[in-house]
Every structure is written in structure tokens, then in C-alpha cells.
Amino acid sequence: MSNILTGIEVRGCNLRRSWRHLDAEAQRRALATLPVVEAMNVRQTIAVDLVRLYCAPDIQIAFLERQLIVERDGGNLINMSTLYEQFRSRFVTLGWQLGSSCIGDLRLAWQGATMGPNAGHVRFPLRRAGVAAQRQFDEDRLIDCWIGLEGLLMHKDDRRSAVKQVVTRAQRLLGIDDRQTRQLGVELGKSFGVRSAVVHGDVSYDDASVLEAISVAGDVLAKSLRTFIQSGQPIEIRQLG
């Protein structure tokens, strides 16, 4: 199944069910009839990540496949190698439907994410947000969210803590008031605390605290990414505070 988004086709297939039981000729026929993703390039990856950011946050790419066809003795031998991607299986679907309003948002987002004044700045934080959506383990998802936040809202020459930088700049970027900022500071502080516990092997956290930490960090990351992508002007990190 496939979806076409602004000219970029993202396709996936699953040959795992019976691939090992097929002979070479049957494998060739299967490859001729089923869509195979040879590699996800940068533009395809951005397309999937934008769908997640604007429409369906839990879309999963189950795995990608590469094929190498070698000629030998007048015939073709197929060497099939599978590049498995992490994914949360309960969210995997073969296709998805996008509403008209979502398509409109995506067209504008595509322009901003690929050609806008902040395209270079959002590229890797956007990818981290996408990777977080794919992770099998919640601890890994949390770390990816914070890598995205730090890449998006921190400055290498700013000596303040990660939480202080993210909260201060998120306030300016998202236009939240002082009361909301204080609350965000508390929530992001807890989220970063769980992140630090994960990174340093401290098992004092529980599943609920990890999920809450992901929710807080992921929400700020998503809102901040959309603001950068949709801005018609370059946003300078240091000018945000």
C-alpha cells in the first residue's frame, strides 16, 4: 500500500511471512509484484515525519528492504537483505487516510521544512521526533524527544541548564504566559529528571513517569517544530532568550 504526499511516495511491504520458503524464481516474481523500499532518502523521511507531526503521530514504518540482483551464468541471482527498523507493532497499518484539511497543512509544512528560512535548523530535531515515534522502548523515545528539544532550543554557548534554556525559549516561541511558563518549568524539570535517570542507569523511575515525561517533552517539541516550520522569517535561537 502506498500514500503519495506532495510528490514523494512512501512505500513499504512485508515479505517476512513466507520469503524463506520461496525458491529463487518465486522470489523474483514476488519482487516484481510487491513494492519494495530500497532506501528512505532525506525527502521521504521528512514526508513521513511531517505526516506524524501534523496528522497521525503514531504512523509506523515497519521495515525497509534492499535488494541486490546479480547476473551469473546467464541468469539472475537475487541477494535479498532486509534492513529492519524498530517499530511499535500495535500502531502498524498498511495504509492511512489523510483528510483534506490535513493535506493543506502538509503542503505548507513541506515548503517550510524543505525550503523555508528555518529548514536547516529543524531538519535533525524533526528526524528525532520521527525516530521517537518509531522506538520500541519508551526510555529510548524519551531520550530522542530530549535530543530533539536540545537541538532545537539550546545554544552551545549558553551555559544555563538544558531545562532553563528550553523553558525560556519555548515561552517566547510559543507565546505562553508566566503562569503557564512556571508550570512548564516544573513539568519539563520532571521530564528531564527521568531522562537523566534513564541515561545514567538509575532505575528509580516507573513506567507511568516515563510516559508522562515523553508526553511533556514530545508536546513541546512538536509545537516548537511547527512554529519553526511555519514561520516565514528565520528564528534566531539567542534572540528567544
What does this protein look like?
- The protein is mainly alpha-helical and 241 residues long.
- Helix content is 54%, strand content 12%.
- It is built from eight helices and four strands, in the order ββααββαααααα.
- The strands form two sheets. It has a two-stranded antiparallel sheet.
- Strand 1 (2-5) and strand 2 (8-11) form a beta hairpin.
- Helix 2 packs across helix 4 (119-134) and helix 4 (119-134) packs antiparallel against helix 8 (207-230).
- The N and C termini lie far apart (46 Å).
Summarize this entry quickly:
The chain is mainly α.
Could you name the key traits of this structure?
mainly alpha, 241 residues, disordered N terminus, two-stranded antiparallel ribbon, two-stranded antiparallel sheet
Describe the secondary-structure layout.
Blueprint: E1 2-5, E2 8-11, H1 24-33, H2 42-54, E3 63-72, E4 75-84, H3 100-115, H4 119-134, H5 138-153, H6 162-174, H7 178-199, H8 207-230
Antiparallel strand pairs: 1-2, 3-4
Helix pairs in contact: 2-3, 2-4, 3-4, 3-8, 4-5, 4-8, 5-7, 5-8, 6-7, 7-8
